[in-house]
Design a protein that fits this description.
heterodimer; A: 190 residues; mainly alpha; 7 helices; 0% strand; B: 126 residues; alpha/beta; Rossmann fold; 5 helices; 5 strands; globular
């Protein structure tokens, strides 16, 4: 039996057991209990309408799989690009000096640009972690079919290495420090 | 600067290791070894003879910061130049790395020129 049913039943039992007139205080209390029961019933209906089961068994797993696929595809594409660059570099010694320099300059820029794969991979990893957290919380809703139980709160983090506790990157462009900011911060220690 | 020194690069993204290795090659550093996390790196550092470590921060099971602390706590490795290359750009990260004894810190994405500049700076002071 769910919480809303329990409260409704309790109110009914109280009402049927009462003989004589209710005091204003008792009337107020019973009215509040009745309101609470209705609120709980409404919340349960709203949660049912959310189709929590669909979200947990279909939407979130599909979304995380898609994101994993994005990471895998970009990794493969990046490896292909790097293969091609390394092939060009091997040709450089056989070329006239100016051409070889141009080739090396171009491949350097490509190598630099390819680091996008690492950054996007980490960002997508953060999104997947967030989705899995939502999935866990929705599972609790599904089990209890009622208000969030207190166990839905994050477990206390103990014995977490400092490096793990501070590992929250990559930062979003709006809040990320530039290399100049980092240099300046490091210099402040000297 | 000894371009023949052994350099250990540490990152859990194989692609990133490949990119750093290629950039180092273009800077004429050819003796490059790789590790995919702090634990593997520490084992390689203790077994080998390296002149520089270039490490990512966010790796499992041992992060770059824990690797740095282990390196600085090791009698034989404590003076080894250590550059962190990471997307972790918050002030608290840089401060924690500095307090742990990092030699320099490069924020991703980075370019070859920044890598060259930081390596030169670190090796001059080594």
């Amino acid at each position: 039996m769910h919480d809303g049913d329990t409260v409704e039943q309790a109110v009914r039992q109280v009402l049927t057991s009462i003989n004589g007139d209710l005091s204003p205080k008792e009337t107020l209390l019973l009215g509040e209990l009745q309101g609470l029961a209705e609120e709980i019933t409404r919340a349960r209906q709203e949660m049912a309408a959310l189709k929590v089961v669909d979200i947990n068994t279909s939407h979130i797993p599909v979304a995380t799989d898609e994101l994993d696929a994005v990471v895998a595809h970009t990794a493969r594409a990046t490896d292909e690009i790097l293969d091609a660059c390394e092939g060009l570099e091997r040709l450089a010694p056989a070329l006239p000096a100016a051409s070889a320099t141009a080739i090396i300059g171009a491949t350097t820029r490509i190598f630099e640009a390819c680091s996008f794969q690492d950054i996007t991979g980490q960002r997508i990893g953060k999104v997947v972690t967030a989705l899995k957290s939502i999935e866990d919380r929705l599972r609790l809703v599904e089990e209890r079919f009622g208000p969030f139980p207190s166990s839905a709160t994050e477990p206390a983090r103990t014995d977490v290495p400092e490096g793990r506790a501070l590992a929250n990157g990559p930062q979003l462009p709006a809040t990320a420090a530039s290399q100049a900011d980092i240099d300046s911060l490091l210099a402040s220690f000297d | 600067m000894d371009k023949n020194m052994n350099i250990l690069i540490v990152d859990d993204y194989k692609t990133m290791l490949r990119i750093i290795r290629n950039l180092l090659k273009q800077l004429d550093f050819d003796n490059v070894e790789e590790a995919s996390d702090g634990s593997e790196a520490l084992a390689k550092l203790r077994a080998g003879n390296f002149g520089l470590v270039i490490s990512d921060w966010n790796m499992e099971p041992m992060t770059g910061l824990e690797l740095l602390k282990e390196v600085r706590a090791d009698q034989r490795l404590k003076n080894l130049p250590f550059i962190m290359i990471t997307a972790e750009s918050k002030t608290e990260n840089v401060v924690a790395a500095k307090q742990a004894g990092v030699s320099n810190y490069i924020v991703k994405p980075f370019n070859a020129e920044t890598l060259r500049e930081k390596i030169e700076k670190v090796l001059v002071h080594a």
